[in-house]
Amino acid sequence: MINIVLPVDFGDKTDQLVDGAIKFAKQLNGRIYLIHVAPSDIGFAIGDMGFQYFPEVEANEIREELVQLNKIEQRIISHDIDCEHLLKQGLAKDIILEHAKEKNADYIVMGSHGRSGIYDVFVGSLTKGITKSSTIPVLVLPIHD
């Protein structure tokens, strides 16, 4: 079976990315390892007293992101594709590449979001970082308007 790592960010184009990954997985009889990397500073805010940490804010955000991951996982499974998910906090590029290695991934499927800069308009900065550092193929799906 082909192992596919699918990072998601819950942006407005996530559904298009998931649809593309489902189609790709079906063609290859693949298993999808869904991953979301949350920033490690979710509970921090800057206020009158400087930096403050609010653990309840972080816990609520993580809980909401897990609900979203579960929904995407169930959607993938409903297409008869094996799927499991992971949510981690930290630096997205490093965690995604580490996860791909741990899962013996054959592919990483990423989307082209178009954020900033000429190259990034077509590929996206995280996607750019993954494609530059990955030792396995990265399938870039065009998911911009």
Automatic annotation (TrEMBL):
Pfam families: Usp
InterPro entries: Rossmann-like_a/b/a_fold (IPR014729), Universal_stress_UspA (IPR006015), UspA (IPR006016)
CDD domains assigned: USP-like
Domain of life from the UniProt record: Bacteria
Residue stretches making up the UspA domain: 3-142
Gene3D superfamilies xrefs: HUPs (3.40.50.620)
Family per record: Belongs to the universal stress protein A family.
Descriptive protein name: Universal stress protein
